[in-house]
Amino acid sequence: MSVVWRAVHAPSGREVALKQVRLGELTAGMRASLDCEVSFLRSVRHPNIVRLLDVVRADGCMFLATEFCAGGNLADYIRQHGAICEQVSRKFMRQLGAGLEVLHAHHIIHGDLKPENLLLSSDGGDPVLKIADFGLSRVILPGQSVDKVCGSPPYMAPEMMRFQRYDEKIDMWSVGAILFELLNGYPPFRGRSNVQLLENIKTSAGLPFSRLVLPGLHPDCVDLCRKLLCENPVDRISFREFYNHGFLWKCERDAPEGEG
């Protein structure tokens, strides 16, 4: 349905990531998500959200030109570096939270937060994290819930895997899985199928914390991961509780130089 090319944007001469979407292969729901993605990206400009530079329709396709991020994605970064130190993980969480705050203000859930969809501005120095790939995003107004299954199983909230109705807290589960993977180098739950994955979540009593408590890890970090990876969405923290959490802000003195 879509493919991404590395290209040059002729009007500006800038290197871009060019996403080609074959419109004839989209369902009505996919088309609505694409329209939501384009509308949202056109309306915002934020350092932690990938910037949309141009949209072109031609030959039954839609082409989305976005800024090119030379650092690849967060999955590449984790594969290269392994477990990431707490200070750098905090920086990425703060930047992810800053981007999600914009989505939250627009009543948008991303629906597919995972390391592959978090891009890094550069491959050295102090890369800036940018949220990308809004192809499964949708608007959910306060008090609403939906039941469409989307996302990637290792980062998918349990209520979605159970085909239950869900709200914006599915993104908070994904954030927790990403934080765990940053600190450990692998996702918190794995399974050969969604059924096995769900069983592993259920039998773990929330999280295998013995693997998370690394030497010197701040208690606030463990607390945040616990609260994000609550199996029951009623008990899971909201976006605002996540973004105001002590792990992101009380330890600001430990943040790497150049963060911002």
Top keywords for this entry?
about 260 residues; alpha+beta; Phosphorylase Kinase, domain 1; two-stranded antiparallel sheet; disordered C terminus
Shape: globular
**Overall radius of gyration:** 18 Å
* Structural category: alpha+beta
Mean pLDDT: 86
The largest sheet is:
4 strands, antiparallel
CATH topology group of the largest domain = Transferase(Phosphotransferase), domain 1
Order of helices and strands: EEHEEHHEEEEHHHHHH
What is the beta-strand fraction? 15-25%
Q: Assign the CATH architecture of the largest domain.
A: Orthogonal Bundle
Number of domains: 2
Largest sheet, order of strands side by side? 1-2-4-3
Superfamily at the CATH H level of the largest domain? Answer: Transferase(Phosphotransferase) domain 1
* Low-confidence runs of at least 5 consecutive residues: 253-260
Number of helices: 9
Percentage of residues assigned to helices = 25-40%
- N-to-C terminal Cα separation, in Å? 36 Å
InterPro entries: Atg1-like (IPR045269), Kinase-like_dom_sf (IPR011009), Prot_kinase_dom (IPR000719), Ser/Thr_kinase_AS (IPR008271)
Domain Protein kinase: 1-248
GO biological process, one term: regulation of autophagy
Protein name: Protein kinase domain-containing protein
